[in-house]
Amino acid sequence: MTTDKYDAIVVGAGHNGLVCAALLAKAGKRVLVLEANDQVGGAAVTRPFADGYSTSACAHLLYQLQPAVRKDLGLKPALARDELATIALAESGEHVRLDGNSVSGVSDEDAAEYRAFRKRVNRYADLLETYLNMAPPRLGTKDKRDLVTLARLGFDIRRLGKTEMREFLRIIGMNIFDEVVERFDSGLLKGAISLDAVLGTHLGPRSPNTMLTYLYRLAGGHGRMAIAAGGLGAVSDELAHVARGAGVTIRTGMPVRRIVVENGRVAGVETEDGTRFSSFTVISNADPKRTILDLVGARHFETGFARRATHLRAKGNAAKLHLALDALPEFRDLSKKELGQRLVIAPDENYVERAFNPAKYGETSPAPVVEITIPSLADDTLAPTGKHVLSAVVQYAPHALREGWSDGTKAAFEQTVIETIARYAPGLGKLIIGSELLTPADIEREFHITGGHWHHAELTLDQFLFVRPLNGAAQYALPLDGLYLCGAGSHPGGGVSGAPGRNAARAILARGIE
Amino acid sequence: MRTYDAIVVGAGHNGLTTAAFLARAGLDVVCVEKNDYIGGAAVSRNLYKDWIYSNCSYVCSLLRPEIFRELELHRHGLQVTPYGGSVTFMQNGDYFGSYHDDEVMYREMCRFSRHDADAYKAYSADTMRQCRFIREFLLSTAPDPTSFKPSDIRELMKIGGKFLEMSEDRMYETIRFWTMSVAEYLDEYYETDVIKAAFSGSGIIGTALGIHSPGTAYVLLHHYMGEVDGNVGSWGYARGGMGAVSKAIAGAFQAAGGELRTEAGVDQIIVKNGKVTGVALENGEEIRGNLVVSAMDVKRTFLNCMQESDLPSDFYRRVKNFKIRGSSGKLNIALDGLPTFTALPKGSPLIHSDMHFIDSMERMERAYDDWKDGTWSKDPYVDMVIPTLNDPTMAPPGKHFMSCFVQYCPHQIEGRRWTDAEREAFGKTVIDQIANYSPDFKDLILHAEIRTPQDIEDQIGITEGNIFHGELTMDQLLFNRPVPGYAQYRGPVAGLYLCGSSNHPGGGVMAAPGANAAREILADLKRPNTVPENFGDD
Predict the structure, then answer these.
(1) Which domains, and CATH codes, for chain A?
(2) Least CB–CB distance from A170: residue in B171, B184, B475
(3) What average pLDDT does this structure show over A151-178?
(4) Is 0.90 surpassed by the pTM of this model?
């Protein structure tokens, strides 16, 4: 069965797919988006997890949505709470609060050093932001655009000034561990910064490269965090609304079985139910491995390219725990107002590193790092009146658990996490009415992300910029005519940023759609 | 009072190299050394009866052939005999051998996996390509990317040019190679755990990183880019132990009229009116010189031997934060006879090779976890060799010398000094590890010298006993080594230079930092250059 022909088909209605589709439609293209799940948004969705309770399923904080994306699409996500502070929890109750560029609960020296540190990293993040919002240049080509971009990159780095340029070139490959140990005394402060650098990755604070992941988090908004009203699903819904307004057709509950290749080029897609949609342009919001190896098939690519795709690293470690609570939990020495902030459990940099150790061997952390929000404090649509939702990102829970993920291993890890939080919030256990743990394996199954990795492919220098996700596919076009990537696996990476979607749309429009 | 043209502090192989090239340019040079023997970490010591120990560095490979030839080290007694291969003993009683002969290597790998055997060729070619790329830059000064000086721009263009000679795909592969972990790099080629474990050791030797840490693929090169007798990637023994290397360079230095003084430890490098004027020795004596060249690591140079007030504050802070972490220990053992290894077939040539005792990637990484926790690896990676099988001059007939390089071993135990009991326990861990595969080993031990990084620091003077004088991570390589803005062998005070392994291109008995420093000094003095050009890939 064949239906009408579209200018472009986007596989997956994750936020990047929607951004890409909307921008193409705004340029006058006829675009169809096919989504496997019944809801749009991919990993940025709000969904129920217990009777009367719902929450943002995977991503739960809004902090990276690129200003360029907001502007191009006129997005104005409703925020239940903006400019969240981070509270690094201490068992003693002597918490440390990180708020923008200031920190309290530490020595004066640490506070002053933190301001200087933030000033510097924000400057580098600004430099990075420019390049996150454009397709990376190719190397060794004679293409004028690539050469201009490369020259500009060199010029921008030089423009930092001699001292800052040296510092930038020094720290870009460094680890966050050495940086925080060089600068700060407070374990909680060092722990909180380390946690920010490793969230969503298969890296520990001592792993070189974690300075880059930290800067990445700050690019486009300096790490300012917000809780979206209605959860992150509301942001996806707004995106879908904008896309539909621009003429995009979105069809949910339509899993794509394969991307059709005919005469050496893309010819459309076929869904699980056998329906065939034709288009000479297919843009995949799915991760690169799934796109290349499953949806298209290795045989349609040059062997070396297919081999590299096989070796693409995407080992997810971030689990998500949702708790339906009978009442607001009490955290030691935290006011109700403070409970609405972002709470982190990462007592010091060594704790974070030790949490990472077992992940290398396919084991979960016995003492995990946790990022907690209680979104129901700011948003009463998520839980019945007087009740609350606790949403936590937990590391490390490796995708490929050695023992295998089962009800038993899941329950054990959930218990570990609850006990860890309860050290700071005694009595938490008694409030739990319902819960949901999403391991990377669950995220892979439910959201169709290989490895359940929130960047779709590890965010390390060897999978960054010119080589993200892999050689020969860094500019959104895959080496198969008509096929493109627009998800987190492509440049610059994951997070609800919209940058890959926007960059992809621009690259596709620049090439022209047949 | 006599004023030397240059005083070189430290008679390690780099200090001696700088001294030799300066003396050959006609300068009046003195090289001062705190110990009563020369060589720093490239020494032959007689610590037990008639045995000669290469008690710190133990094999020779990276020594730049350009320097070898220019200084005519063969005339000064240096002979390097090649050896090769390696063996990794397995817990199941088997072993994996590495051989120089491609055919033998292929057959050996096939015992484990045909797939891996087939991948070996591509692996060797790809790794060697990266070696060839970097080897071009060993004997040149790293360009300062912030500078507009013609020499810096020329050097940057040269690197850029070499890079651009590659195909687009190769460029991306190179970028990836420089930034990935050795574990991931090996994963791209091999499926067999023991094969990966056997090859991964070179990615972590001397560094405080694990096989999964990004950037360790590059460290691999520091062990592959050497050459012996024109064979790239080969290893060799200096006849008479590693001290023969230092002795030969010292011979070249003295032949050129240089003066060598041992038991002359430097207490302070003297600065007057923003310029160095000489050094004050620990015994109170003062030596005057127009230049002072430090072969010590940067921390020791600036934090121990200079006044903070003489240094720019930002520079001082950078040096303080320079990462130079002790991560390796050493056991030197005198043996009553040749130990047997149960797994090895009779007559196996692998007894001549590097022997290793960790057969899985997980065990490799767990060894690192112990170091992070502030203790030595309880299941350590040991690079063990018996040099006397190739060089009978190092032990009495029928007896043997064994060198065990151990990874990981921290500079301090949980942040405090080692106790004697802990040093003994560390030694026992290593001996037990070997004895697991060699039943008669323990009974053959006549004497063992156990060296923790702290001992290496105390005896040789290298901060934290780090064999590379500083971690080989991206933030401390090329123009970042040792400190951004000071990567061209010039210190922050007029007349002060650096020539040790803390500088580009880093450690290993390479003599490249020493030669590069000499070239820069001679350029500043407008003297003819005596340092040879990079041979490139001839």
Answers:
(1) 2-42+232-313+450-511 (3.50.50.60)
(2) B475
(3) 87
(4) yes
